[in-house]
Every structure is written in C-alpha cells, then in structure tokens.
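Exercise 7b. Backbone tokens:
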C-alpha cells in the first residue's frame, strides 16, 4: 500500500482531521491536536518495502497521541517497533515513563503496542519506519528498556543508521519489490542491533532477524500442514513478505519451501501410520489429514522418501511393535 496525502485542497476546519486519519491509516491510530493557530497544513507519504513501512510526515506544530483507548480498539492489529528520524523541527516523545527530546538529525525508538505521545512544537519533517515486532524476535523487556531514548549522529550506531535511513526514506518510492525485500531485511538487522546496544546487550549477529523469521515460518507450516492450500505464496502473505524473500530465507536451510512442506507432511504421515492402534485410520485418511489430496502422488512421494509403500510401512511398524511387545 502506497499513500500520498496533502491537506492543500481540504477545507480549513477539516485539515487536521484529514491529516490525522491519514497518519492513523498508514501507521497506527492516533489522536491529532494542532498546537498552532491558523489553518493546519500537513503532508504524508508512505510506502511499503517488504515487511517495512516507510513514511514521511510533514506538518505544522501538533501533538500525536497513541492512547490506551485507541490501543484497545485496535487490539487485533500487529504490534510495531517504530523508529522516528527527525529531519527538521524538534520532537518530544514520551513513552514508558521516559521523555526523549529529539533534535534534527536524531532518531528515537518507540512501540505501538503501548501508549505514547509525540509533541512537535513547530513545523516539522520526520521519517518514520515501522517493522512488526515479531520479525525482530526481541524480548518484550528489551523493547521496554529502549523506548523513549534519543540516539544522535554522534553515537556509534547513530552515525551508521541515520544517513542510511534518511536515504532509504527519500528513495523508497523508486525501489522495485525485490530490492525492497532485501532492504527490509537489512533494516530489521540494524534495528535488532540498535535494540541490543541500547538495552546493554551484546550486538546481535547479522543473520539473527532472518533466523527468527525462518523459525516463525517453520512454526506456521507445522500449524497448517493439514491444509491442502498451504503454499509459499500463502506463507509469504501471512508473514507480509514476498515469495522471493521467503525463498531467499530458506536458501541457507538447504531445502525449498515446497519441499519442506512435503517433507513435514510425509514425516507426520509416517509417524501416524507407524503408531500402534486398535482402530487405525486408512492410509488415504491419514494422507488427507496431512494435506495430500492425490493418493497416487502420496504413495509415490512416500516411497521416494522411505523406500517402501505406506501400507508396507504400516505393516512393518505393526510387526515390529508386536514383536517388541
């Protein structure tokens, strides 16, 4: 979803509300209170790069508040870790009992799952980066430790992050989807390192965020093995990444996503067929339970994996269990 909004053609009395709704739609529901007299002027541009949302906000003096009521009303929304980069003007962010004064060239981290407020006392321009909390794999306690703390370009990680994020936001509309996926992965790694450094923990390895996402995908596959419609496209959609990026994540796993799905289905079928039971289900029932819709395909795949047919496997396991008993 890409979004461009300006209040230029909106009636004066509706400008702040119009801009606030755009911010709430693109980022997270917030209350907007103008802090200056006269007609409000605001602009917003927002783009998605894989799992990363990149937005640029420019407006007159205002306060944005993420209240407990708004959080409760959007309880089904996915929690996002956000990093705001101040381009011009100043900001004061309050969250988790901390107050961060953010000057031009600084960044600040916050969490949409908990209340916060941002005051912009004069006209401002800010880049905001939103990444799903789950993709970082960071303990909730670590996120709470680092919210509401400003990072300047004079600090070691700030010197690396700030120019990169500023350039990324300005060029976001021009990136093709494949490049966007790669950049989102890089940003996740950098955010993971930022949280670790601010929380006083050792810096995370560069592949930690990707490894965490691989674990999430594997768990998703295991939960949906019985669904015949389980596909790489559906998995990618569920995790808000592209199929291309999904396949890239599994390159180091030595297996394609499609083959992983089939292998896990066969493992569950073999386990169930080998279980001793007085009322064992038929081979075809077991196959269907684990997502195989074509019996002939299932038999061929099972023989290729285990060197025997499903019925022969069941008979052998039954005999071994009887002999052992």
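Sequence design result:
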């Amino acid at each position: 979803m890409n979004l461009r909004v300006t209040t230029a053609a909106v009636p004066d009395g509706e400008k702040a509300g119009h801009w606030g709704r755009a911010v709430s739609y693109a980022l997270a529901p917030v209350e907007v209170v103008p802090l200056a007299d006269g007609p409000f002027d605001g602009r917003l541009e927002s783009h998605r790069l894989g799992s990363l949302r990149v937005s640029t906000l420019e407006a007159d003096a205002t306060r944005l508040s993420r209240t407990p009521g708004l959080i409760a009303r959007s309880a089904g929304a996915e929690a996002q870790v956000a990093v705001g980069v101040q381009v011009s003007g100043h900001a004061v962010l309050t969250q988790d009992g901390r107050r961060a004064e953010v000057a031009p060239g600084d960044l600040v981290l916050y969490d949409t799952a908990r209340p916060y407020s941002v005051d912009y006392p004069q006209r401002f321009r800010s880049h905001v980066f939103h990444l799903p909390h789950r993709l970082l794999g960071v303990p909730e306690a670590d996120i709470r430790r680092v919210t509401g703390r400003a990072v300047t370009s004079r600090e070691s990680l700030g010197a690396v992050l700030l120019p990169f994020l500023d350039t990324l936001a300005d060029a976001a509309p021009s990136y093709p989807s494949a490049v966007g996926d790669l950049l989102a992965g890089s940003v996740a790694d950098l955010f993971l390192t930022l949280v670790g450094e601010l929380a006083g923990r050792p810096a995370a390895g560069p592949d930690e965020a990707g490894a965490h996402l691989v674990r999430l995908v594997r768990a998703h596959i295991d939960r949906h093995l019985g669904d015949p419609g389980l596909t790489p496209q559906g998995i990618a959609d569920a995790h808000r990444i592209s199929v291309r990026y999904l396949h890239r994540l599994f390159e180091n796993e030595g297996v394609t996503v499609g083959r992983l799905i089939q292998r896990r289905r066969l493992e569950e079928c073999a386990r169930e067929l080998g279980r001793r039971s007085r009322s064992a289900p038929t081979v075809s029932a077991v196959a269907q339970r684990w997502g195989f819709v074509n019996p002939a395909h299932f038999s061929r795949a099972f023989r290729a994996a285990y060197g025997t047919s499903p019925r022969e496997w069941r008979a052998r396991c039954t005999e071994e269990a009887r002999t052992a008993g």
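Instructor comment: The two ends are 61 Å apart (CA to CA). The domain at 3-201 is CATH 2.60.120.10 (Jelly Rolls).
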